[in-house]
Amino acid sequence: MDESLARAWVDGWVLSRGAAPPQEVDGGLFIDVGLTTHVGRYVLFDADEARVRRLTETVTAPNTWIKTFLEPETIGSWIADGTAWRVDDPVFLMSTELDAHRDRPAPAGYELRLWTRNGITKALIVTEDGSFAARAQTAAADEAYTVVFDMVETAAEHQRRGLGRWAMTALAEAAVARGARAGVLAATVEGRALYEALGWSVAAPFGGLVL
Predict the structure, then answer these.
(1) Phi first, then psi: what are they for 126, rounded to 5°?
(2) Could you say which DSSP state residue 71 is in?
(3) Are 195 and 118 in the same domain?
């Protein structure tokens, strides 16, 4: 796993989510997220059994995550006995070289709105009456070479119409125009198929635990 890619994801994700600056800890970083459902998360670049067991033994704040670049089954076997930690759903760290010249389909009956503020570019797709249909955003600190794609969502009633592809391609074009050349994101099992169709590839598993 390329640690520079992982750190680029952390920097962009922190900006995208409005989280606190990462703090260096043994084996990686800790991020104060500050939500009732997501208090904080550890991102371990050098995860091993001893580090994971120590964290799961000592961290007691509910809704804390531990993310690693290992398979969920591996880190799940390292949870300290007698604790309430569980294995999170599978996630994948994915990356791509950005291309501003890919086709950007514009499905009929929808409007794409794009804006940038404080380092975050948002793509919002709405119906003709202004109802929400889909969204996605990118974030990159200090005009970084690599941008993070985040908060990709399509409303259930508007899925399978190419809206996710449209939003992602528009954001890629905007990022390239600002000098970015690479993208990185964390994908669910369902999202992975969309991103692979757009030319993204899996860089590493992103297995996690949650308390």
Answers:
(1) -125, 160
(2) -
(3) yes
Q: How far is CA 60 from CA 48, 64, 86, in A?
A: 20, 8, 13
Q: Which of 8, 91, 80 is nearest to 50 (CA)?
A: 80
Q: Distance between CA atoms of 151 and 132, rounded to whole angstroms?
A: 14
Q: What is the pLDDT along the chain (211 residues), one digit of tens a residue?
A: 788 899 999 999 999 999 999 999 999 999 999 999 999 999 999 999 999 999 999 999 999 999 999 999 999 999 999 999 999 999 999 999 997 666 666 789 999 999 999 989 999 999 999 999 999 999 986 556 899 999 999 999 999 999 999 999 999 999 999 899 999 999 999 899 889 988 999 999 999 999 9
The dihedrals phi and psi of 24, each to the nearest 5 degrees, come to -70, 130
CA–CA distance, 171 with 180 (Å, rounded to integer): 11
**Are 111 and 134 part of one and the same domain?**
yes
Domain span including residue 120: 96-200
Three-class SS state of 131: coil
